[in-house]
Each structure stands twice: as structure tokens, then as C-alpha cells.
Amino acid sequence: MPTTTYMVVDPRHDHGFRVPRPDRTVSLGTPNACNQCHTDKKPEWAAAAIKSWYPHPKPGYQTFAEAFALAGRGAPGALQALVAVAADRELSGFVRAGAIRRLGPYLSPATLPTIRTALGDADSQVRAAAVGVLPGADAGLRGQLLPGLLGDPVRQVRMDAARALAGEPESRLPPQERARFSSALDEYVAAERFNVDRPEGRASLGNLHAVQGRFDEAVAAFRGALALDPSFEQAALNLADLYRSRGLEGEADRTLREVLKRNPRSAPARFALGLSLTRQSRAAEALKELAEAAKLAPENTRFAYVHAVALNDAGRGGEARRELEGALKRQPYDREVLLALALFERDAGSRARALGHAQRLAELEPESPQVKQLVRELGGGP
Ligand code: HEC
Questions:
Q1: CB-ligand 1 contact for 37 (6 Å cutoff)
Q2: Distance from residue 38's CA to the centre of ligand 1 (Å)
Q3: Nearest Cα residue to atom 25 of ligand 1
Q4: Is residue 50 in contact with ligand 1, taking CB distance under 6 Å?
Q5: DSSP notation for 301-332
Q6: Choice from 36, 38, 51 to test ligand 1 binding pocket (greatest atom count within 8 A of CB)
Q7: Which of 323, 297, 299 is nearest to 310 (CA)?
Q8: Which pLDDT does position 2 carry in this prediction?
Q9: Cα(296)–Cα(307) distance, rounded to whole angstroms?
């Protein structure tokens, strides 16, 4: 039986049995049991064999694969497919929680009813997933949706709700909810304190102090994480971001350069330094760092996007468009990249190409008035 490595070091035999679906290998590229043995055959061969054995398909329970595959690519229809999976009571809580988690990037009035329902689900995995997508929502929405979960019977749900309310929304809680908030947040802090022998535990406390505006404690927690493990970059990146939020750009700069001294190939540190240099009005140096970040992590379309914007600002529109086209090859449905490319092509006078990108954007966001307006402006609709 094949093994999967857990926790970086633990190879374990997997005892999960599923109906083999080589047809999905053909359509989605997922692995299947048949071709793990029949390595010399194509998935099409295995799919045809199954079809000849079972002329009436026995699809099993993994009916969510298409929705998750759409979500993985950010492709058109992903939102609707995920909403349908989340609402399907035939599916396990684990799967519905997976759909909710994937709705995170689509948080909007269209998905809010699904998240709201999930917060009241009988399965705690689903409630936890719904709480998990809300930290990125605006403070008003968090303050409205999360207090009801501060008394949840499951500790993980209570802790995550409190953590997502810490900072701005916390100050607006009415007195009776404040007490429940404090005790749930105490549980969270206790859990992280239990882990302060690990840099992750200290960095989590640093992030909590940072959103609560406790600057000195946050700095101490991040420094503590780095003292335990100087190669734990995330703590240094968060520390630099904390300095930025206080306008201490020199400190942010210094912190990031320390990371790069240890690891010159850290793309996130190059990227953050590029942004810091931009804020310091050192555009030429910034451009160099942003270029390096995009080169070190070509799979990161955000890095490519920001690099392209910087190139365009520097009057190097042709290179900017090439950078975006490269990113689009890897992520054909990246909204930021599509919009930037549509605008840059329009400004360069290539209206037909601009329209192509705008139309793909319209496929992804059929309801967006801005996108409709852009398509119209480029001559692609009424
Ligand atoms: C654990 C390894 C293993 C797995 C998993 C497995 N097979 Fe096989 N399969 C074999 C072996 C070994 C033979 C050869 C048996 C023999 O020659 O008597 C075989 C024979 C076959 C044959 C007949 C050989 C031929 O060329 O006509 C077909 C068809 C086949 N497998 C299809 C499948 C399909 C479809 C699946 C997935 C549902 C699958 N196998 C999963 C090991 C495996």
C-alpha cells in the first residue's frame, strides 16, 4: 500500500479506499489507483476498462471534485459550484467544510448567505471553516457574524471566532458579549502559550498583539520567535509589516535585509523590501527587488503583477505586458492580471487584445458593473 508523508517526516500507509476514477484523471488530472500499478498504461486505458466492466457507472461519493478543481484554478463557475457543494446535505461535513474554505476568496453578498448558514451548521467542522473565512472580512461584518460563536461548544470554533474579532471589532462588542469574547480569547492565548517552544506559537501571539495595537509586546513576540529560530522568515516578515504599519520604514527595511543576508533567495522578503523601497520613494531600487521576487517565485502571480505595475510606472510598458502575459499563462483566470493587462493593452492602443482580456474578466465576474463598462468602452458590447 502506498505511503503519504505527514508532518514533513512521517511516511504513513494510507488506508482510505475510494471508487477508482481514472476518468477524472483524464478530465481533471487527479491521481487514480489503477495507474499507480499500471504505470505503463494511460488513464484513458483504465477508464475504458472500468467502462467495459460497469456499463452503468458507479460514480462513488466524490461528486465534489469538479467544483474543487474549478476553485483551484479560480475558473468561471467556481463560486456557484462551491455554493452547491456547501448546501448539499448528502455530502459529509468534511467535504462541505472544504467547499466553505474555498469560498474564502469569493466573500461577497453572493456568498454571504452560504457562510451565514454554515456558521449555524450542526457539524463543527463546517462552523470552523465558516469562521475561518471571516478574518479577511471588514470589521463591521465580523462584528455582526462572529459573536454568536464565542460560546460554541467546540473550543476551536470559540478560539477562532475570538481571534477574528480581536482588534477593531472587539471594541464595539456590547458588554455581555465582551465577557464571552475575553474568555474565548484567553483560551486562544493559552493554546498559543502552550506552543511557545515553537516559533509559530510566538509569531501567532505577535500577530494577535499587533492587531490589538500592543506594539511593544508584538515586537517582543516576533523577536522571541526569531531568537528560537532565525530562519523562521514569517516572523521577520510580520515584524517588518508591523514596523511599516507604524511608519517605521527604516526598521522595516533593516529587518528585511537581515532576512536576505541569511537567505538571498527569499522571494517574499525581496517582494516586501521592494514595496518598502517604493514607499521610501526609491523607485529604481524597488524595481530591482520586485523583479528578483518575481523571478525567484514565478508561480506567484501577485509578485508578477506588482512587478509589472512597477515596470509600467517606469515607462517600460512592453516589458510590463510581457510579464503579465507570462503570469496569465500560469494562472489564466487571475483577475488582477487580466484587468491590468486589459488596461495596459488599451493604453498601448491594442484594443482587440485589451478586449479579449476584458471579456475573459467578464466571464469571471458577469455581474461587475466596472467590467461591463470596460468591455463596452473597448467596443465589445452594448
Ligand atoms: C495493486 C496493483 C493494481 C491495481 C491497483 C490495479 N491493477 Fe489491474 N492488474 C494488476 C496486475 C498485477 C495485473 C495482471 C494480472 C495478471 O496478469 O494475471 C492486472 C491486470 C489488469 C487488467 C487485465 C490485463 C490486460 O492488459 O488486459 C486490466 C484491464 C486491469 N488490470 C485494469 C485495472 C484497472 C481499471 C484498475 C483500477 C480500477 C486496476 N487495474 C488496478 C495490478 C493492479
A1: yes
A2: 7
A3: 49
A4: yes
A5: HHHHHHHHHHHHHTT-HHHHHHHHHHHHHH-T
A6: 38
A7: 323
A8: 73
A9: 12
Average pLDDT, the chain: 94
Ligand 1 in contact with 351 (CB < 6 A)? Answer: no
Answer whether 37's CB lies under 8 Å from 47's CB.
no
Rounded Cα distance between 177 and 145, Å, is 12
Q: Give CA–CA dist 276/68, Å, rounded.
A: 36
According to DSSP, residue 4 is labeled E
Distance of alpha carbon 250 from alpha carbon 254, whole angstroms: 6
User: How far does the centroid of ligand 1 lie from the alpha carbon of residue 41, in Å?
Assistant: 10
- Secondary structure class of 342 (helix, strand, coil): helix
Fold of 308-382: 1.25.40
10 Å Cβ neighbour count for 6? 10
CA 49 to centroid of ligand 1, rounded, Å = 9
For 263, residues 6+ apart whose C-beta sits below 8 A from its C-beta are 231, 233, 269
Q: What share of the chain is helix, strand, coil (3-state, %, to 5)?
A: 70, 0, 30
- pTM flag (> 0.90): no
Whether the CB of 47 sits within 6 Å of ligand 1: no
SS3 372: helix
Section 45-57 average pLDDT: 93
The b-or-e profile of 208-246 (16+ CB within 10 A means b, else e) is bbbbbeeeeebbebbbbbbebeeebbebbbbbbbbbbee
Using alpha carbons only, what angle is made at residue 338 by residues 303 and 291, rounded to the nearest 5 degrees? Answer: 25
Report the distance separating Cα 24 and Cα 183, nearest Å.
Answer: 47
| DSSP code string of 256-318 | HHHHHHH-TT-HHHHHHHHHHHHHTT-HHHHHHHHHHHHHH-TT-HHHHHHHHHHHHHTT-HH
pLDDT digits (tens, 9 = 90+) for 63-117: 899 999 999 999 999 999 999 999 999 999 999 999 999 999 999 888 999 999 9
Work out the pLDDT band at 19, boundaries 50, 70, 90. Answer: confident
pLDDT tens-digit series, residues 276-301 = 999 999 999 999 999 999 999 999 99
Sorted by where each begins, the domain ranges of the chain are: 308-382
Mean pLDDT of 42-63: 89
pLDDT at 382 exceeding the cut of 70: no
